[in-house]
């Protein structure tokens, strides 16, 4: 319950916004961290091109989509085949994992763990910080995962449409979910990618007026090439002319991040119908029914491009119970400030 007067609520959310920004600023990656990671990417790309001439190693996930925190893992995708899909080498992904792992072991000081027989074969590499390179590096290298590169580009485009609000909200949710131990798909909760999609759904489809346009439904303003429309049978179109969009899209919604965060927590503790609905960013209204998709997981979030894929399929009954409990706790803390200092609320919350 909001027990504050409108004026007090306005002061509260304005102060909350400032506190969130101040809270995040020391945990964002530094320029130096980006430089070191980029150098690492290039070093590994050189090795990959020894295994498969012309191979590219591209960053995806948080290092490439604008939602990185300090010391986040690096997600890299190795592309060996040409755009037309013809393989440049005869190696399978599992073989590439074995061969490239061997080479990284021989030529660098990384710890290397090949996972050639995983559902998606990857190489995990890591290096402890040293006095010269005071950053821990943890990196997953996958192969031919072009859809992940595309969804990274989608998230980056959204991040660029309204950076102050979307980015701040997502970064805060990432820190909060990690500190509250709700960001662990292997033990029944939701990935960072999943929380990011929740935030996008909220800002695009729940908030009225919307904070963000639905980029998958903004019509193209130029002739598109076939490879911009379809990838492996999936419709990957979205409006990506961010420069134009930044000039032409102005949201009528003027709420600050503090207010949006409070409403995000309230919406997902009380209003969202976990039992019936599937979040589907690409659709007009943002929701489909579980029945219509024959999905029955606890939480259903359709991948923006892979319609048959539930991003939150790892969330268990217990996991969802915990997450919803934490949404409620967060609402309560942010709405009933016992303390006079808003910065203390954030410390309590995380
Ligand atoms: P962190 O900073 O690592 O916490 P992130 O933004 O890198 O967050 P994830 O590590 O969850 O996010 O995911 C990295 C990328 O991998 C994001 C997306 O391109 C892809 N990805 C992750 N999970 C899924 C999924 N369930 N379905 C499809 N793509 C996924
Ligand atoms: Mg990541």
Produce a short descriptive summary:
This is polynucleotide adenylyltransferase. This protein is an alpha+beta fold. It has helices at 6-24, 31-51, 62-65, 93-107, 146-161, 163-179, 192-206, 226-229, 242-248, 257-271, 290-293, 317-335, 342-349; strands at 56-60, 74-79, 111-115, 122-127, 137-143, 230-231, 234-235, 277-279, 287-289.
Describe the model:
With 350 residues, the chain is α+β, with helices and mostly antiparallel strands. The protein is built from 13 helices and nine strands. The protein has helices at residues 6-24, 31-51, 62-65, 93-107, 146-161, 163-179, 192-206, 226-229, 242-248, 257-271, 290-293, 317-335, 342-349; strands at 56-60, 74-79, 111-115, 122-127, 137-143, 230-231, 234-235, 277-279, 287-289. Strand 6 (230-231) and strand 7 form a beta hairpin. 3'-deoxyadenosine-5'-triphosphate (3AT) binds at residues 60-62, 65, 67-68, 72-73, 75, 148, 151-152, 174, 191-193, 303, 311. This is polynucleotide adenylyltransferase.
The main β sheet shows up as:
5 strands, mixed
**Global outline:** globular
**SSE order in H/E notation?**
HHEHEHEEEHHHHEEHHEEHHH
Strand ordering within the main sheet = 1-2-5-4-3
Question: Based on helices, strands and strand pairing, what is the structural class?
Answer: alpha+beta
CATH architecture of the largest domain: Orthogonal Bundle
Q: CATH fold name of the largest domain, please?
A: Poly(a)-polymerase, middle domain
Query: How far apart lie the N and C ends?
Result: 21 Å
């Amino acid at each position: 319950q909001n027990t504050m007067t409108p004026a007090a609520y306005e002061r509260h959310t304005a102060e909350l916004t400032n506190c969130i920004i101040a809270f995040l600023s020391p945990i964002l990656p530094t320029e130096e961290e980006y430089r070191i990671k980029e150098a690492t990417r290039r070093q590994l790309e050189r090795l990959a091109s020894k295994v498969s001439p012309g191979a590219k190693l591209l960053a995806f996930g948080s290092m490439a989509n604008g939602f990185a925190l300090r010391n986040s893992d690096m997600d890299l995708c190795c592309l060996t085949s040409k755009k037309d899909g013809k393989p440049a080498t005869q190696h399978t992904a599992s073989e590439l994992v074995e061969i490239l792992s061997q080479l990284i072991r021989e030529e660098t000081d990384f710890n290397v763990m090949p996972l050639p027989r995983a559902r998606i074969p990857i190489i995990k590499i890591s290096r402890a910080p040293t006095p010269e390179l005071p950053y821990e590096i943890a990196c997953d290298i996958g192969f031919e995962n072009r859809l992940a590169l595309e969804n990274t580009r989608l998230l980056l485009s959204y991040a660029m449409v309204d950076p102050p609000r979307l980015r701040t909200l997502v970064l805060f949710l990432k820190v909060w979910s990690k500190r509250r131990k709700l960001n662990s798909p292997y033990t029944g909760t939701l990935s960072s990618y999943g929380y990011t999609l929740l935030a996008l759904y909220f800002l695009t489809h729940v908030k009225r007026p919307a904070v963000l346009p639905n980029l998958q439904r903004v019509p193209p303003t130029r002739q598109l090439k076939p490879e911009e429309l379809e990838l492996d049978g999936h419709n990957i179109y979205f409006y990506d002319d961010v420069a134009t969009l930044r000039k032409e899209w102005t949201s009528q919604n003027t709420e600050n991040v503090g207010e949006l965060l409070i409403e995000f927590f309230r919406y997902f503790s009380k209003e969202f119908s976990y039992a019936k609905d599937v979040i589907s960013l690409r659709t007009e209204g943002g929701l489909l029914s579980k029945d219509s998709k024959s999905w029955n997981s606890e939480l259903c979030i359709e991948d923006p491009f892979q319609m048959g894929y539930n991003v939150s399929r790892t969330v268990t009954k217990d996991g969802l119970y915990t997450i919803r409990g934490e949404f409620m706790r967060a609402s309560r803390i942010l709405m009933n400030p016992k303390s006079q200092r808003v910065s203390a609320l954030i410390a309590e919350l995380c």
